[in-house]
Task: structure prediction
Amino acid sequence: MLMLAVAAAPPRAYDGPTAAQPATDPVPLASAEVPFVVPASTTGATPKHPTASPPVGSEAPSEGARIVRVKLPPALTEPDRAGSVITRRDLDERLPRSAPDALRGEPGVFVQQTAHGQASPYIRGLTGQQTVMLFDGVRMNTSTFRQGPNQYFFTVDSRSVDHIEVVRGGASTRYGADSLGGAILASPVEPSMERGRGPITAHAKGIFATTTADAQLGGRAQLDLGVLGRVGVIGGFGYRDVNQLYSGGAVRQPADNSLQKVPPRFAPDGKTQLGTGFREFTGDVRAVGEINRRNRITVAYYDYRQRDAPRTDFCPQSTAPQDQCLTYRKQFRTLVYGKYQHSGGPAAAESVALTLSYQRQHEDRYLEVGEDSSTRRTGLDTVHTIGTALTIHTRRFAPASWSRVGVTYGADGYLDQVRSDATLTFIDTQTSRPDISQYTNGAKYFTGGVWGIVDSEFTRVLRLRLGTRVAAVRSRAPYSEVRNSPAHRLYWLTAVGHAGITISPLRWLAFPFSVDQGFRAPNVDDLTSRQATGGGSQFENAFLRPEHSTLLEGGIRITQPWLELRMFGFYTVIADHIQRRPAERDECPEGDLICGGAKFTVTLDNLESLSVIRGIDGGIRLYLPYDFGAAATVSYAWGEGRNPRWGVVPDEQYRVPLSRVPPLNGTAEFGWRSTEWGPYIIGVVSWARVQDRLNPVDENDDRIPDGGTPGWVAGHIRAGYRLEPNLLVGMVVENLANSAYRYHGSSVNAPGRGLIFELQGSF
Amino acid sequence: MRTTTNELARLTILALALATPACGGGSVGDEGADSDSSGETTDNPTSTTAPTSATMTDATTNDTTASTTMTTMSTDPDTTDTDPSTTEPGGCPQDIDFGAPDLAGCTPLASDFTPDSSAAYPACVADGGEWVLVDEPPGSAARVEAYEDMIELLRNGATPSADDFTTARAIYATDNGLESRVLRREDTHYPPIPAAEQDPGVAFDRQCSVADNATNYPDRCVGPARIQPIVDEAFVAGMTGDGDANVHAARIDAAVQWFLWISIYKEAASCILAPGDCDSTWAYYNGGTEQGAGIGVSANLREIDPAIDDAIFNGMLAIRCWRDLFPADGDPAFEDLGDAGEAMFYEAHEQLDNASWYGWARLVRAHLERQPAVCDSEADANWAFIQVAGPVLDPEAAVRDEAAAATLTSLWANDAPSVDDLTGGIAALDAAFGCPQCESCDVSQEWGY
Result:
């Protein structure tokens, strides 16, 4: 645990939605993998040259510093890029229902929910396979991440997370394939390993949480052990039972102001959303051992098990009997990894982090067509991923007194093996037969590359970054007789680059600019999957090309004791953009009647001309007297691409909005956090404008009301009391006006008026 | 290839029907025959209109009287068959000519649409005699293909195996396939579910997917309440090898065709509010193919008489013409059509409806005609088909000709009809459904939605 040493000036109490501490100086691009101590600072900013910091594990406070039991927000991994950090403290105040829920309100992020137990963060208008997610540096993205929203970040237990960083905009140079929209970096809670406090230290923590909107009841038990200050083990397990979600009711459709039909389907009260609720079990153990002051080994295990989570837009599907429901009986993710960290090495490799990981992502879907039908469908998909990542920091060289140069470089590789089976069962005869699986069983996928980033500074005014990655991707899948899908064996090799310049005319003022190339090769989902999508059916395209993006980003950063501002404008161009296009029924795979009979059919295709996403995002935070504070964020993305139907369907426009790009949205909050006594109370308003810029595919998507998703404003109050470090009582009164609203593209409406309550006790 | 194969299958069925295989007895006129052989699978779920348990008979004896009656009932001078095996009294098969329907008096009404001349319709997109899509190609075409695939497995001339039933059911149960629509199909000939009992959270044309509605309004909710139980029961029996597989296959065939046929009328009605449903009307009928080359119900009717197929298609073109002349805006409502639009819709819809009734009546008639010509399991299957398809006509027959309706209802309930019964039934059909047009058949005030 980073129990930070802070100098005389205590950290500011108000710590709003732009929680990332703006760095006035660069840090290594991979600093998340290199622990360091933040020295005394009056601004809480990150250290000037952290890679030249004490060795790994050294947490001794500097002379004159005093220990405070408040952690500073972690620094941005890439301070000159647009980004933000959600700290453990933020999480304890926001009391999110899930890890994606914790990201709501972050600049540039918009969280879509297809189901109560699923959520997918959009970053700058892109989501799913076009963003990358890492957990403690281990890539979570698998080759089955699909186009559009997916549920996989939900499989991160927000209670086991110390902080989550969002990197907005393309970041493929550092994080590899998929990072067109951005990256989400989750960092777990570390064992405290309190040196000098006895041979064995132990801390226990219990969390009890409940909500009224979905009658949730659950909690987590956690134990943190330290031995001789060199070995630390932290482990915990959690459970929660989440019931059907109460909402403000059905939303009104902009097209005619009528109430939207399914999804979701409501109970007779018109508020309770059927097809919601789930159960969840989480467990984790993390052991850290310091062999000596230069070598550290971490072994970690994280298990997430979600059961009986209905997919709201399929409970029922709009075309199906009202008692139909598709349920994720199991949504499991298991992550095991070991990490070796070395510091104090030679100049070319002063610090090294090597990770070996295994991840198993498993889901078991069960479709019950309805009481009048004896048809049941089961789908089992498992992805086994073995991976490795090597990150090396050179010493920070000083070729001249006014310059510093450091290099971060590394390599990574992840190999997936996909198991996919499906069964059709008739329960009246207990007859089962193989069904068309979602993916081609036995598909294998590799993604990896080598990369390097040079980070240099020339006086205090100018900083430059330059980097590149050479990436390789391979996908193989056998012929499937059941699916009648062809075998494929595909290879791609590509190179992308990154450049950045930051000009700081004043110590408190900086203008960062970046150019970043991103790429994403088609994955197993693109190349082999057949799946339902918003009432329609999607089939594979094994002839896709990789998509490439180029990001131009510029912003302003102001860091004053009373004001923090980070605002960025961006312009992303995507070539060969992979998007859904309406498909003719005679394009359906031969013999696939699901495809032919769907309400509409889509397939993925590379758009023939460039797609563009542009917008602004950022946040401002004001530190006011007497522990008052205010903060606001705003996010806007505008996407447009070639209309795949142009030239096929009469009267179609050549360019159309990209699918499901979020509307203009933001948050504003004003509150008081007592630094002296512990209580806090914050009023929060979140809002979004109507999104009526729809792609032709969106217009067929049941998740989007006719005419688009209506705009909304919702008010919340967060209040609580902290008695560090033993007690936290937190609560959120959500949706004060009981508004009926939903995040664009969601199947499930936002919770109605209700209370979220959490009690944390520890010793 | 699919069409060719299906045509072959269809020809095979026809050839079997016309062939003269050696057999142990006829299924016609065997009132005294053992009735156990067909098991439980022929229970008639359409009991509200024909409340009988139609146990098929396995002929073990010949009925001379019936055979004699057959001869005397023949009115066609060409009924004398040169094949002695088919003229044997009470033999099986028997080549009985029930006479062809007389269409000489059937001419389009003044209000009817025909591609070449339609006084009641201004120029429109349907004048070319081809279907022009209102919207995107409808998914209903794939359901007709699925029907054809099922029939290829179940009615290809050979007795289907349990595996064939399982495979066919997998096709039937395809996601977004036939079953998904059967489970919500409404018969819009019946009054809508009262507004107070409709689920406000469910779309107007999916109210029958609400379980309570299907239970409380089985006539309106014909799919879940009537068709699906037949299909399920037949599949279960077929998959478990219980009873006569050909009978089960025939009942599935009849039930699925019933669904496809009733969808023609339903989709035409919902086309008012959902313009793309006009395309579904067309595609449920012929699989979204060119006129004259249809599959599904269209092909089956065309095989009986191309004039039937053409008459129904013209009814569809009438709907298409109306939609062209009164195009829908973003949120169409019936009231938006105005008097002229409403009147034209009624006329077009009625033209289609009358042609469709006629087509279904001719389908049933063809099976009635076939009954004496088939034996054993095939005869049982043919009668099973009739006992599912026949009662579909009852409500409309009752409106048109009460006496004929009574005759027909009685016939469907007859587990072992004689040739006299068949002849009477055919005469009743011809009386009630004499033409694809019907001057006096008004649209019910409670039609549609």
About this structure: Residues 5-762 of chain A form a domain with the Maltoporin; Chain A fold (CATH 2.40.170.20). The radius of gyration of chain A is 25 Å.
